[in-house]
């Protein structure tokens, strides 16, 4: 399952950090961040609950970039 989320981030480097943090999150098969569009596209592993996984993604992204936001 793939979903798209609106994000808020200050710079392209921060967006890259968010993408890397999201990709390392358990339950995420693939994640890409488009800084220009302020979007994060997430593909979830089979059988994972997107809401639960995205809470973990948000927490991991906040660790590397504390002023970022993902609108769930």
Automatic annotation (TrEMBL):
Organism of derivation: Candidatus Enterocloster excrementipullorum
GO molecular function: metal ion binding
UniProt-listed PROSITE patterns: HMA_2
CDD domains xrefs: HMA (cd00371)
Database matches in Pfam families: HMA (PF00403)
HMA domain ranges (all copies): 1-65
Top-rank taxon, per record: Bacteria
InterPro entries, per database record: HMA_dom, HMA_dom_sf
Protein name per the record: Cation transporter
